[in-house]
Specification:
The complex is a heterodimer of chains A (300) and B (426). Chain A is mainly alpha-helical and 300 residues long. Chain A has one domain. In chain A, 73% of the residues lie in helices and 3% in strands. Chain A has twelve helices and four strands; from the N terminus they run H-H-H-H-H-E-E-E-H-H-H-H-E-H-H-H. In chain A, strand 2 and strand 3 form a beta hairpin. The longest helix of chain A has 32 residues. The model of chain A has no long low-confidence stretch (mean pLDDT 90). With 426 residues, chain B is α/β, with parallel strands linked by helices. Chain B has two domains: 205 residues, 3-Layer(aba) Sandwich (Rossmann fold); 170 residues, 3-Layer(aba) Sandwich (Rossmann fold). In chain B, 49% of the residues lie in helices and 17% in strands. The radius of gyration of chain B is 25 Å and the shape is globular. Chain B starts with a helix and ends with a helix. Classes of the chains: A mainly alpha (300), B alpha/beta (426). At the A-B interface, helix 2, helix 5, strand 1, strand 4 and helix 10 of A face helix 2, helix 8, helix 9 and helix 10 of B.
């Protein structure tokens, strides 16, 4: 424990600013991945264990698009839409067959695809390390805010993630599609009985969740190294966020992601050997005192 | 006979058939097929290679296999051993020590492999060592740099050798270099940032121990221990910024090192301190980093200009032409391991583990990777010596490393000897 160092940091404006921005960075990328997991679970009652692999696929598709076009914007769009399409196909041909099944069956299907996608990525892109590199627009020195450091690229990521989160909220809360999705989350049979074709609805929801994972992979591309299997580590953290925020709650995922991001950021100073432990400690406390999660609704 | 009776009979017949087939399969598996395979393997010499062929470090397995094949292919093309060619059989352990151990048993008992080239990472190598001790086959560890694997007499196996870098050698060579730079540039406050597992911990401890030995005025003011394969290093980078060290040592490697550099670049970290990243000097890492900061120092992993010999260059060209990939540190280590095996086979003309081990103990081979054109398998502790150890400054294009300063092996031997005594290994 380095409590003195932590106290010194908290007493310093520059340190506080730097660490808060650092926490926001960690949090927003986690949110993008976790929001897809929680969206899919909230409506379809499926825990998509392959979600980390979707993130990986988004990163690789974005990398290829960036290499070909030189445009980061195109890379993000290709990464997001490419994974959305894959997600729809995955749902239609595989996941739809295990709706209502034992969670172990869902896990097996998803784990199979983790292995398949890892090897597919290796075959297509190779096993060597790939790096997208920072787009020219963001090759700028960090901005000083209150004495702390704020890289322009990270400020961009924060803004984009907030925009995506807001767009998601609008879609879910303020559109007819969102109303139907929320209804399906409560009672899919009734929605089907009302003449709405739930298979298309479920595919759309899975596609949207996958799009979020793909977008996260594409957005993070400039600051990640691409290797087969890179999705596993983000998957674990996104599940922690989902559990802490509440399975099925987008708002919960946002708050939980930021909480975990800031905890990791300050925790690395005060408890450098226990950073991961702090994250799991938070999860444990939430499970004990509020097992449904901070915003524990089935879908919000 | 009623149809019910015939169904019953059919069912009984089916059950009997299944029982019989199962028994036959079991008997064949236990006694039969391995023997058949072994009989067939008299025509070939099978070398088994447990390694990591999937997941985040699949490049380790691929480049290890390719490195071994550079020597095996040359041997086979020259006619093999009295017409007997070498066949390399690989198994994917996925980086799990228990899988590595199981793979070695499978390679020896089921595949009929007579020799093992162990291309497992450190954690797997210790598991493989125990299996090799049990089976008595010849084994060359070609990836693990964990010093105790061969330095600790309690862990050593009579038929196992290390044909790879040893952490303590790099630590002594690196520490000497870092101390010199510290004196030149007044680097007093050091910080470390290394992956939190056995390799990261021991390598970092050894490096700082010897840097302090050569320059006692330095102090380690802080440490960061990110998890292996951690995707986000933001909290680590900001921690380093807060600590304001003069110099940073890192044993991060592969994709982790690339991600760390990319993320640290956003904060301009490398402009604020001197950085020693021992694993940066590997081609796949250097060629993947898009914006390599100026002046980062790295240990030599594999570089075609280190040592600057035509044979090294030729080996590089052959590797790239054959595999369409750049060689790695693991590539030259496995090529070396294969060459020791081949030379031993040519001397002993037998695949018996004890006889091959006796031949390899103390063996010297000609090698493009040796400082003086040779590499030696030290008899006292079954460890490779004479390879290129040192540090240089990385650059983003060929030759990727400049101002290389090679370590003095006499100094390495002297300090290694006292290190062994301190740790109870001698």
């Amino acid at each position: 424990m380095e409590l003195e160092t932590l106290a010194a940091c908290v007493a310093s404006m520059s340190c506080v600013v730097t660490q808060i921005i650092s926490g926001l960075i960690i949090g927003v990328l986690l949110f993008l991945v976790a929001s897809g997991v929680t969206l899919i679970f909230g409506v379809l009652k499926v825990i998509n264990f392959a979600h980390g692999s979707f993130y990986m696929l988004g990163a690789y598709l974005a990398y290829t698009a960036y290499v070909v076009t030189g445009s980061y914007t195109v890379a993000i769009v290709v990464g997001a839409l490419g994974v959305a399409l894959f997600g729809i196909l995955f749902e239609r041909f595989f996941i739809s067959r295990v709706y209502g099944s034992n969670v172990l069956m869902q896990l097996l299907v998803c784990y199979a695809f983790i292995l398949i996608l890892d090897d597919a990525v290796k075959i297509i892109w190779g096993s060597e390390y790939l790096s997208m590199g920072m787009p020219d627009a963001f090759r700028l020195p960090p901005i000083r805010i209150g004495g702390g450091f704020a890289p322009p690229f990270y400020l961009f990521l924060i803004a984009i993630a907030i925009a995506i989160g807001f767009a998601l909220w609008v879609i879910v809360e303020r559109t007819r599609f969102g109303k139907i999705v929320r209804a399906a989350a409560h009672n899919g049979d009734m929605v089907s009985a009302l003449g709405i074709r739930t298979p298309y609805l479920y595919a759309a929801v899975f596609g949207l969740g996958s799009l979020l994972a793909g977008a996260a992979g594409a957005l993070a591309g400039p600051v990640r190294s691409l290797t087969p299997g890179m999705g596993f580590s983000i998957l674990i953290m996104s599940f922690v966020v989902t559990v802490v925020g509440g399975m099925g709650s987008i708002a919960g995922a946002f708050v939980a992601a930021l909480l975990i991001g800031v905890t990791r950021s300050f925790g690395s100073i005060g408890f450098p050997l226990f950073v991961d432990g702090l994250m799991f400690l938070i999860m444990t406390l939430v499970l004990i005192f509020k097992p449904t999660g901070l915003f524990g609704r089935r879908f919000a | 006979m009623t149809s019910k009776d015939s169904r019953h009979l059919d069912s009984n017949g089916r059950r009997s058939f299944l029982k019989g087939a199962t028994a036959l399969s079991a008997a064949t598996a236990i006694g039969g097929f391995p023997s058949i395979l072994k009989a067939q393997s008299q025509d070939v010499i099978k070398i088994g290679m447990p390694t990591i062929l999937s997941g985040r470090v699949s490049i380790l397995g691929e480049s290890s296999r390719n490195g071994a094949l550079t020597e095996i292919n040359r041997f086979n093309d020259a006619g093999g051993l009295d017409g007997r060619k070498i066949e390399l059989v690989t198994r994917d352990s996925r980086g799990k020590p228990d899988e590595a151990a199981r793979a070695v048993r499978d390679l020896v008992n089921s595949e009929g492999c007579q020799i093992i080239l162990d291309a497992e990472a450190s954690s797997g190598s210790f598991a493989v060592q125990e299996v090799v001790r049990d089976l008595g086959v010849l084994c060359l560890h070609t990836v693990s740099e964990a010093s105790p694997l061969t330095a600790d007499p309690k862990l050593r196996a009579s038929t196992a050798f290390r044909a790879a870098r040893q952490g303590i050698h790099d630590a002594i060579g690196g520490g000497d270099y870092a101390a010199r730079i510290s004196r030149e540039k007044g680097l007093k406050r050091w910080m470390t940032c290394s992956p939190d597992y056995a390799y990261g911990r021991t390598t970092t401890a050894e490096f700082m121990e010897f840097t302090k030995y050569f320059e006692p005025s330095i102090e380690v003011v802080d440490e960061a221990w990110p998890k292996l394969f951690q995707p986000d290093y933001t909290e680590v980078v900001t921690k380093i910024l807060q600590s304001k060290p003069d110099a940073l040592y890192s044993a991060l490697w592969g994709g982790d090192l690339i991600a760390f550099i990319d993320q640290a670049n956003l904060y301009g970290l490398f402009e604020q301190l001197e950085t020693f990243a021992v694993n940066l000097g590997d081609y796949p890492v250097l060629s993947a980093v898009q914006a390599l900061p100026k002046g980062i120092r790295s240990g030599t992993r594999y570089n075609k200009a280190v040592p600057p010999k035509p044979e090294n260059d030729a080996w590089y060209e052959t590797y790239v032409k054959t595999f369409d990939q750049l060689p790695t540190n693991w590539s030259w280590e496995n090529a070396t391991g294969a060459k020791f095996v081949i030379q031993a086979l040519q001397e002993v003309r037998d695949t018996d583990g004890k006889k091959l081990a006796e031949a390899i103990r103390g063996m010297k081979i000609e090698s493009p990777f040796g400082v003086d054109g040779t590499l030696t398998m030290r008899a006292e502790d079954h460890t490779l010596v004479g390879y290129s150890v040192g540090y240089g400054v990385t650059v983003p294009k060929e030759p990727f490393m400049v101002d290389f300063a090679g370590a003095d092996w006499a100094k390495i031997f002297e300090l290694e000897s006292s290190w062994k005594k301190r740790n109870g290994f001698a």
